[in-house]
Amino acid sequence: MFSWRSLYQLKPLFPTEATVFQQKVNEEIDSVKQFNSELIVEAVVRCIRVINPGLGTALPTSLPPGMSARFRVGMSLAQACQDIGYKGEIGYQTFLYSNEPEIRSLLMFLVEKLPRESAEASDQQTGKSVVLQRAIAAAIKAQLVVPWLPTNCRLPLHSETQGLGELHRFHAQPLSLPHCTKGLGKKHLKEVMDYQRDILLPVTAQPSHHASVVASIMEQHTAELSAAQEWDNEWNSQGLLSRLTPQEYRSRKLTRLRKRIEEQLRSAALPSQDSSISGSRSTFDLSELLQAFRGSVPSDDVLTKGTHFTHTQKFTFAQESAAVTSSIPTGHQSEGDIQLRQQEELASFQQQLQQLCSDVDQLTANMKLLSVTNTQVLDELKQRELGNSENEEKIQVKKKTIDLLPDADNNLLKLQALVEASANRVVNLAAQWEKHRAPLIEEHRRLKEICSNQDLESSRKLAEIKSLHEKIRVATEEAKKKEEIHKQLVTELDNLPQDVSRSAYTQRILEIVSNIKKQKEEITKILTDTKELQKEINSLTGKLDRTFAVTDELVFKDAKKDESVRKSYKYLAALHENCNQLIQTIEDTGTILREIRDLEEQIETENGNKTVSNLERILDDYKAIRQENAVLAAKVREG
Description:
The chain has 19 helices and no strands. With 639 residues, it is mainly α. The chain starts with 14 loop residues before the first helix and ends with a helix.
């Protein structure tokens, strides 16, 4: 039960409010039932000031003398309690004409609403570092509550919580993070640890700009998380079906990837047929491409790998150019003659180059035509060779047949004997094959059945493995949730006031449990006695009914013969009826007594609600309000 002493527990949490309230509480007050309106108002206001200072500062801690002002204070208190979350019925009558249950529930709600962080703060040592940490925590909480706004939408009032700092675009850079080194040897492990300790830069120093640190860390974490999820999906969908361990599956996947890369490199390194046929043209194009990439580098400096034809053409062209250059006179010539001669040489060289290109194109076309013709000739030659081999076989058969014609009868007999021998041999071979075939078929069926059973077993085990993986995932998620709940509960436990003695609460709980146990025992005993009494009443009632029935039958038989017995029969019936009325009267008396007890309990409850005293106070307040109204009306008339 809640009593006024429960408010004393608030003293270590809120010393100012609890001390002031304690000074005004009389020691003779033992429970909430003895609280008057002034104490109730002051207790509620001081609790509201601790819970929400913004609401509590505007509320008075005492009732004013005027009745109308008291009604206004009661309405303000009721509205403040509803604002902080009180869901019960509350109004001005709760404070002015209070009863014990309503005040107890209201005070219990207010005590539960009191902040618990202050208890932990009161136990900590005061100092500059502690005050600074508290200020930082309060500022961070205040900033987290306020929603973020873009720079263009911020008002001057947001300048305190949201600064006008420079915005940076999301730019991520690769990071080098230390990873697990379990599979390395001692030497390599030492080298890796030395590198990570001495050479590897911190994560905040690796990006080129400090603004990219957060983006880089988020990108790195997202990449690792997506890779882990992709591996889990691949392993659950394909890895389990391969029936390999994760290491074997990774090694096989790596081997396949290497083979594909080697095949791609080999296919890219092999020259095509067109390039082998028209080597000179591809070499010329390659030289032009390299010259285009290198800029103004002359084509003579490019190292090309051409065919014999291209080298011959290049050598001839070099000889001709050398001859032309040697035929140039070395005497003094004018610049106009030199430019004219150079232009003529350039025109002749271009004509030669065009002629050479046309010759190359014609030779390439001729080589293509000759290669196609050669392929057709080779195909025709293969077909003719196949036809010749078939004709030779036919000729050999016909030759043997012609050799056997002179002795046809003997040869026919020999052929029939050979056919019969071949048939007998085929029959013997078929019988032997049947002997070997039956056990082989049985063995095949048995092995096939074993394979099907193994496939069914493997599919069943695979389904079990998948279900186990799903259960493991669900259990992991539940474990994470429970860990979070555990951390939250530990935090709440740390935030609870540590100076409150647990032994007092434990002793009180044990006393309540013992009282409940005693009450249960008494209730059980009463129920047992009631059941026994009911059984006894039922047995006596049954015995009475049976005795009356037997007596009635015996007396009724004798009543037909004797007049005195007839009178005794009438007395017996009257006695039985009177006994029934007496029993019914006793039962009605018990019912009336129970109703009387219920009414007495209701009367006690109503007395606890102080209905009569509240009505008297309401009448007094009503008279006081009428007097105030009369005074105000007189003042208005005088004015």
